[in-house]
Amino acid sequence: MSTPTTSRADVENPPDGVADPRESSRRARRVREVADGVARLVESARREGRVGAGTGVPADLDASSPSGVGRAAPDAAGVTVRRVVPAEHDAVADLLEAAYGFEYTISESYRDVLRDVAGRAAEHDVWVAVDDETGALLGTVATPVPGRHISPLALDGELDFRLLGVAPAARGRGIGTTLTRHVLDVARAQGVQRVVMNSGPQMVRAHRLYEALGFRRLPERETRVIEGEGGGRLHAYGLDLTGVGGPGPHPPTVPPPSPVPPR
Fold first, then answer.
1. Which residues lie closer than 8 Å to 54 by C-beta, 6 or more apart?
2. Would you call 2 helix, strand, or coil by DSSP?
3. What would the DSSP string read from start to end of 79-97?
4. Using an 8 Å Cβ cutoff, are 39 and 215 in contact?
5. How many angstroms separate the first and last alpha carbons of the chain?
6. H or E stretch including 43?
7. The whole model's pTM is what?
8. Angle at 114 (CA atoms; ends 109, 119), nearest 5 degrees
9. How many Cα atoms occupy the beta-carbon half-sphere of 184 within 13 Å?
10. How far apart are CA 129 and CA 136, in angstroms?
11. pLDDT digit string, tens, across residues 177-234
12. Beta bridge partners of 254
């Protein structure tokens, strides 16, 4: 029996209905190049002081205030926000599980979502806040790459974000504020007009933070119902970016460290 052969033409011109893997690879590479460019724009703008100016939100307020009045904490000092690296995926998963489990009861299905850091990082940008002195992971948030969304909430011209979490030991340092303002900077760099997100009805601490930073409820878009314990509709929040900056200097945003090659 003769060995089946594949012609060069078959390789270069896949049959109709068959995806060309080279085109998929090129498209993924283009998306990542744009995302990298956005990250560089954010970093450059922060270095030059072109972001983080003039919202009128007081910088000395704390979103975790026991008074219950929403107040935006100043950005965390000694903290850098950068993309996660694969070696940190498990640690970020542990951080998210600890952060969400600290105050809330989470289902097994939602726990699986929290821990799928590798899956999110393969499609979107997963950011981490890192202590400059110790290298400890303090918090995390995920944003979509340019041209995509990360949740059903976002519309064209909007950037959404998901799964913002702060390590319980790092609470009170302004990490949540730092990460949220980083999201706003990413949105500006992508050229969108609004930032939106969903938040569970029980996450009152997070609601105070978002409202202090200028987010407002979007009740007309609160259509998603939470399954399981607690139930209720997810809150929807939005912040229009026209004329909005952020008070005070932001921590630097840098690319992730280069992986060390195996020996």
1. 245, 247
2. coil
3. EEEEE--GGGHHHHHHHHH
4. no
5. 45
6. helix 21-48
7. 0.69
8. 100
9. 26
10. 9
11. 999 999 999 999 999 999 999 999 989 989 999 999 999 999 999 998 876 545 689 9
12. 82
- Read off the tokens for 131: 């202590």
Q: Determine the distance from the C-alpha atom of residue 202 to the mean position of all C-alpha atoms in its chain, rounded to a whole number.
A: 20
Shortest CA distance to 141 belongs to which of 120, 119, 111?
120
Q: How far apart are CA 36 and CA 153, in angstroms?
A: 24
Degrees to nearest 5, angle at CA 246 with 123 and 212: 90
Query: What is the distance between the alpha carbons of residues 1 and 16, in angstroms, rounded to a whole number?
Result: 28
Which strands make up the sheet holding 235-240, listed edge to edge? 158-160, 194-199, 235-240, 216-217
Contact 84, 140 (CB under 8 A): yes
Task: Output 111 or 230, whichever has higher pLDDT.
Answer: 111
Q: Please give the Cα distance from 210 to 183 (Å, whole number).
A: 12
The DSSP letter of residue 225 is: B
In terms of phi and psi (left: phi > 0; alpha: psi -120 to 50; beta: otherwise), the region of 172 is left
